[in-house]
Known about the structure:
CATH architecture of the largest domain: 3-Layer(aba) Sandwich
Structural class: alpha/beta
Strand content: 5-15%
Number of helices: 12
CATH superfamily of the largest domain: Type I PLP-dependent aspartate aminotransferase-like (Major domain)
Distance between the termini: 51 Å
Largest sheet: 7 strands, mixed
Oligomer: single chain
Amino acid sequence: MTMKVSRRSQVPPFAVMDILAAANARRATGESVVSLCVGEPVSGASDVVRRRAQELLESGDLGYTDPLGAAGLRQEIAAHYQRWYAAEVDPARIAVTTGSSGAFMLAFIAAFDTGDRVAVARPGYPAYKNILESLGCEVVEIECGPQDEYRLTTMQLDRTLQTAGSFDGLVIASPANPTGTMLDAAEIAQIASWCAAHGVRLISDELYHGIVYDTARWPGASAIGAVEQGAIVINSFSKYWAMTGWRLGWMVLPDDLIAAADALAGNVALCPPTLAQYAAIAAFSDEGYAAAAADVARYATAREIMLEALPRLGWTNVAPPDGAFYLYADVSSSGLSAHEYCARALDEAGVALAPGEDFDAVAGSSWVRVSLAAGAANVTEATRRLSHWHATL
């Protein structure tokens, strides 16, 4: 007998995973492949975090923590907001999660019911839409293309309200994936005020804070001041601190969601990974911050290499890469779709890129995302290969 498979599970896969699988298959046969398709820092966790993890493994004291995380880590995260944003955050508002993915899942379950409407920017991180739809929410996409410099504004929110009707939630990201574009403090404040006035729950994805290339805009504008108005702020150890596989993130919650998040967290995961939690406390040491800053300097070098190569690649239309470690480029001048472009770049140049369809199901077929997290040497080699290949198109 054929068993039922839920409709909620039928979410689209990431196209980039097909590219990554093909790249890995080529590597397994001895081929040289430069991968710029995945947003994963090559440095990994800092030495101070690794040392602390080793000490913890030897101590053997790695039992459950509280569902919302170890008190010591929550206190360090609160201190981080004071250090970076001069913001006072009560550690009781902080929920440590199993990666930022766990934070988004808990936030969406706690804040929205089946049938609620949640707005997201397009292009954007596809998991927002996929998770929301699997939970029975209706996703309202707001186009943020070249005409808007890929930035969401309150004018767009007003227009969406008029054309698509009301919505219950809004997810923003700054710096954004895949574009790297950023909102400034005034823009975030305007969006937060708009949401509060319209009864819309704001969720601010701040995973790439600290990975910012203009010192005047560092570390990135936060919505932390809007938490008392009902906003949720989400961050992670995966990007700035390069701790991807440690699966540790957090969110800062408004008062009305703390109890719900606590109950949900206890039922869903009991607690985040204990080893990762206690080791992550070391990320907030001077050595931990210094290691992360050194990573950002390396991304900046890779970014300059890529920007200098744009004319040779024929990429004349790119999103402003203000932050994160991505570059989002229009490849339509090649005469190829993004999927074709990525497939041929891998086959003929040995370079793996992410097709834009993952991030924009409407206009993404003309765009590719490049990850600079692979480092300067890999980006240099990739641009060399792509330049030679592009000349043959």
